[in-house]
Amino acid sequence: MNRYNVVKYTAFSLEILLCYIIQSTPGLTLEVFGGRPVLMLPLAMTIAVFEGEIPAIIFGVICGLMADSGYSGPMGYYAIMLAVLCYVVSILMENYLRTNLLTAVLIGIISIPIIIVVQFLLFYVLMGYDYSSEYFVSHYISRIVYTFAFVPVFYGINRFIASKTITE
Question: Is the pLDDT of residue 89 over 70?
Fold first, then answer.
């Protein structure tokens, strides 16, 4: 591994750690309309935009495990979902799509609601909780929108980290 990759992966790791601290510390992320963002989702997705398959999967699993530990759900859901998402995003970006903000936003529009809605279906609806539709409206819709709002922010940060100008 060359020096550039070491610097880049270290910067990604520090960014993940900082976002985990922000996400898991009460009071650092505001609750908007009953929902708090899942910062690890747009972070992992935008890292995958700039990386190959293996680093994308590794960062996806790391972000997923951190998201799993930050929420009270079962361990492994976000790790699996983000590993798959990051692999697919990496393949799409390398072979079919151009790396730009519009593409990242479109991927976020599709992937973030899918991951959060599937989580809701698996852990609320299938578990038989009462008033799950009210809970979805009062907490999950705002969580989806709030999480998506971070896609352009993380895209800009990760574009800077991934660019070769950071070491020149």
Answer: yes
Q: How far apart are the first and last CA of the chain?
A: 18
Phi first, then psi, for residue 100 (nearest 5°) are -155, 170
From the list 150, 124, 161, 159, the residue with the least C-alpha distance to 23 is 150
CATH domain 3-163 topology: Arp2/3 complex 21 kDa subunit ARPC3 (1.10.1760)
Rounded to an integer, the average pLDDT of 58-81 is: 88
Exposed (0-12), middle (13-18) or buried (19+): which is 134, by Cβ within 10 Å? Answer: exposed
CA distance 41 to 43: 5
CA 56 to chain centre: 11
> 26 — phi, psi (to 5°)?
-60, 135
- Whether the pLDDT of residue 151 is over 80: the answer is yes
Report d(CA 41, CA 112) in Å as an integer: 7
- Taking each helix axis from N to C end, the angle separating 53-70 and 77-95, rounded to the nearest 10 degrees, works out to 150
